[in-house]
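Below: protein 1.
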Amino acid sequence: MDISKFTDKSTGRLESISGVPGVTHAFVPDSLPPEWCWPERLWPLLVEARTALGNLDGTAKHLPNHQLLIRPLQNREAQKSSRLEGTITEPEKQLIFEIDPKYPSSESDPINAYREVFNYGVALRSRYYSHEKLPLSLRLIRELHRILMDGVRGAEKDPGSFRRLQNQIGRPAHFVPPPPDCLAECLDSFEKYLHEGNKYDLLVNAFLVHYQFEVIHPFRDGNGRVGRLLLAIMISEWCGLSNQWLYMSAYFDNNKDAYMENLFNVSAKGDWETWIEFCLIGVIHQAKDTEKRCDALLGLWNRFKDQVKEIGGSYRLGAIVDELFVSPVIRIPHVTKKYDVSFPTAKADLEKLVEVNILSPAKRTVQITYMCLDIINITYKDN
């Protein structure tokens, strides 16, 4: 970490450390809220971001079934957030993995990548399905981390436990988070702000907290993904959305250098303004992008329903179509089990959907597998 880049406007202090090759100092952030006055020039951008977010939520509220469209968006977020950390999987192969998920057998097992993306989706959905609605807290953050690291490489690094060792971002180190003996102090003030912080607009507040979490980097591994999970939850709940409709990982991934540089410049130069401006532009972009995807998915759902009616499809066939929006990959044994029908009947149902181009047989799979390429393209294709 180049300590010469830290100015007298830095948002924390540099602490001398030893025992880490090539690293001489770590950064300990000041507690939130920052000593920063909201600039008037950002008001129009905040209004535009809030409007875009409201329009997205308004569109989403009129969907016939939230769960039909939220799952594709969550699948996309899981892949984009994992990609930011260098974990890249092909959408089709990832979806096939998710209908029969497995644990990797070793650190080098290729399944690690698919399991990591799978775990991210599970962590996203855990907030929605949880019977015990934990408040935004360190306990919730530890639980998200535990789910994220379940059975994958790095799982030996204390899933659900805060680190007791020094870590760094990048090799050589681009940034060095607080030393372990400062972690309790940082996390205590972080949690207090989660509960009490309301100095700024709550959308802005979510990005202040996201910065703080990433700078503290409280786990040995998985910090970036947990931080983006928490960000999605904060935006949804603090901004009163009807569900987790907005995810930022695609924007951060497409602007990775600016994302990392703006985070660093808050620490080194106290440049909150550029960081918040960058994030609000991202909200506008992601909200509009998500609204287009929702419209496209809803249009596709209506088209599929009409096609099923035209071929005289049964209620079961319509239900199978609905399922495709939750998981656009399906196998015959699943249909036999869920709908209590014979293998030939289930196969005939899926072949009917192939005939009208709703499904396509997947290539090079051990079991006969069908997938809906239209849903996959809308969900994963970058506009």
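Below: protein 2.
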Amino acid sequence: MSSITVSAAATRNAARRGNAWARRLLILSAWLAFALFLLLPLYMVLSEALKLGFGTFFTSILEPDAISALKLTLIAVGISVPLNLVFGVSAAWCVSKFEFRGKSLLVTLIDLPFSVSPVIAGLIYVLLFGAQGYFGEWLSEHDIQIVFAVPGIVLATLFVTVPFVARELIPLMQEQGTQEEEAARLLGANGWQMFWHVTLPNIKWGLIYGVVLCTARAMGEFGAVSVVSGHIRGYTNTLPLHVEILYNEYNHVAAFSVASLLLALALIILLLKQWSEARLSRLKSAGDEE
């Protein structure tokens, strides 16, 4: 009996040692992948940007075309993200709280930008609003320009970022159910009071997480914006497009300098993402314990 017990204990210890080695190997592999695919590119961008010194670096990011590209990027983000915030909350509310005809179609349409190439989305806007497009003649008569102008860039950015807020909120709100809203309704709360005091506190961290993802996607969008922008320097170039133009002109230091500016914005968004994700995970853990 004792020999069987010793054998079982030895087997368990061997399994633990094997699991420990496997765990260390997986952790090491993860860190190597992190260094290879994230840290090394970051180092390359920063080293190339500072290749000729800080003077050239600041000259590259403070030139008028770079400032114009930064402003246009912030304008596109500043318009598309709040609109997606309103749409995402409204869509998530409808899908998770109500049953209606066409609900599955609405969910499919929300996911459409995930399956459609951004380039195809840009071409659709050109076919609709371009000079030879479906609405082109009417737009020309009324002196309205959408394609190769700021409105086209905003529309393209809006299209590719539609799913992020809604897709983050829908499963969260479905998991929470409707009991708290129904209780608030029975206590006399109207629709706005019910949303502001009951629903919003429950979804705020998921909402922040969706907004952060939406912002990151809007800042880095290239394909759809490239098609509708016309690449007019100083007017319709966002930061990603400006980097492409500088690189194609073999102005590599300036290209990497502007890319580092975009990289800094992306790192800020990443930190916000991690913070909101941690808060959301903590909230879910607290809910599971209850």
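DSSP finds 13 helices and no strands in the chain.
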